[in-house]
Write a structure and sequence with these properties.
With 381 residues, the protein is mainly alpha-helical. Strands 2-1-3-4 form a 4-stranded mixed β-sheet, covered by helices on one side. β1, α3 and β2 form a beta-alpha-beta unit. It starts with a helix and ends with a helix.
Length: 381
């Protein structure tokens, strides 16, 4: 009971810190969950394009310009060539399309005209090039079998009128699952912070040289003492995990009462065990309580920023993600992404299990390292 009482005393003394970590996950998760992640359709955004038509009298060039006007946002820039170049550099326009003087004559002869395209090099420029190349391919194909210009234009326009409809047939509730992913990602920071802070404080107290010496010379069975420490730490960590899981029902809703919700919860439980093992390992190294707060903040914030908790991994550079692989939080976040985005979980069971096994591997490494350090310190004492 001594160990349990110590845990309770430390928890009561630091209840304000625990509340702060809890408020953090509620505030940040709630703010990010306001975004509707559901996918209901697809809207193509028109890129800004500048058109220079040097063959304005040609019907073919007029039709090409009309097509660009319908599929892009044509921008007219007055000024010198330097002004136009600046507009392209600063992304005011995505590309400059220059129609040559012999555009119409080349089309009539079945020759592919050389249209000059200067781009800004971004994704919108690539989209602009795709739009332009689509027209030119159809025009060149039609020009090989049609010589009359008016008939050629009609054939081109008829081919371009064939539009493909984009339809999303996913049965996933992407909005609710997106909210669940956001919540569980942010929960990683708060759960790890609560567990590391309290468990490290308690275990560091028991690992002090004077306390350890008194424990060794006392009549207390060392195995029972170690078991009580483990059971107390596990009980506290379980309560933290359970609290955040109950909170997930409030924050996310009925999606938690599903197979995916269950996997989210199991994934969080495995991550909780790794946090407990990390806390145990850290407590074996830490001798000063004053250092605990700083080290816990560095670890939890570092793990969160590098592993995609605070910043989505698609915005992180590859070298950062490479470093994140050596942290259990990364594999936990990866599973959250798999659960929330894959249509059929049966096809990614192996990937989910591998990620969970990696987190379990971290748990074992942390625990074994802590045991080895603890045994060595006991011998020295």
């Amino acid at each position: 009971m001594t160990v349990f009482n110590t845990f309770l005393k430390v928890i009561k003394k630091n209840i304000v810190t625990i509340i702060i970590y809890t408020v953090i996950v509620i505030v940040f998760a709630a703010a990010n969950m306001q975004t509707d992640n559901s996918v209901t359709g697809f809207i193509s955004e028109k890129p800004a394009v500048m058109v220079v038509n040097n063959d304005i009298e040609s019907a073919s060039s007029k039709n090409f310009e009309k097509y660009l006007d319908e599929n892009t946002n044509i921008v007219k820039i007055e000024g010198t060539e330097d002004d136009i170049a600046d507009a392209l550099f600063y992304r005011d326009i995505t590309c400059i399309v220059t129609i040559p003087k012999n555009f119409g004559e080349c089309v009539k002869k079945g020759i592919a005209p050389e249209v000059e395209i200067k781009t800004s090099g971004n994704e919108y420029a690539a989209f602009s090039e795709m739009i332009i190349s689509q027209y030119l391919r159809i025009q060149n194909a039609c020009a090989k079998r049609i010589t009359d210009e008016n008939t050629l234009i009609e054939s081109i326009n008829k081919s371009l009128d064939k539009k493909a409809e984009v339809e999303f047939i996913t049965k996933l509730n992407t909005g609710a699952l997106g909210k669940a992913k956001t919540y569980f990602n942010f929960a990683a920071y708060s759960m790890m912070s609560c567990i590391l802070f309290i468990v490290c404080l308690v275990l560091s107290s028991f690992n002090e040289i004077s306390v350890r010496k008194r424990t060794i010379v006392s009549s207390m069975d060392y195995k029972k003492y170690s078991f009580d420490l483990f059971l107390s730490g596990f009980s506290y960590s379980f309560v933290v995990w359970l609290f955040f899981m109950l909170l997930s029902i409030v924050m996310v809703g009925e999606s938690m009462f599903s197979l995916r919700g269950l996997i989210f919860i199991m994934n969080a439980f495995v991550f909780t065990l790794s946090s407990l093992a990390l806390a145990y390992m850290l407590s074996c190294f830490l001798l000063k309580k004053n250092a605990i707060t700083g080290i816990v903040n560095v670890l939890t914030l570092g793990f969160s920023f590098l592993c995609g908790v605070f910043v989505p991994e698609e915005y992180l550079p590859s070298w950062v993600l490479g470093i994140a692989h050596i942290m259990p939080t990364y594999w936990y976040v990866q599973n959250n992404g798999i659960i929330s985005t894959n249509e059929h979980l049966s096809g990614c069971i192996n990937e989910l299990l591998i990620n969970i096994l990696v987190v379990i591997g971290f748990t074992i490494v942390f625990a074994v390292t802590g045991v080895i350090v603890s045994i060595n310190k006991r011998k020295i004492a």
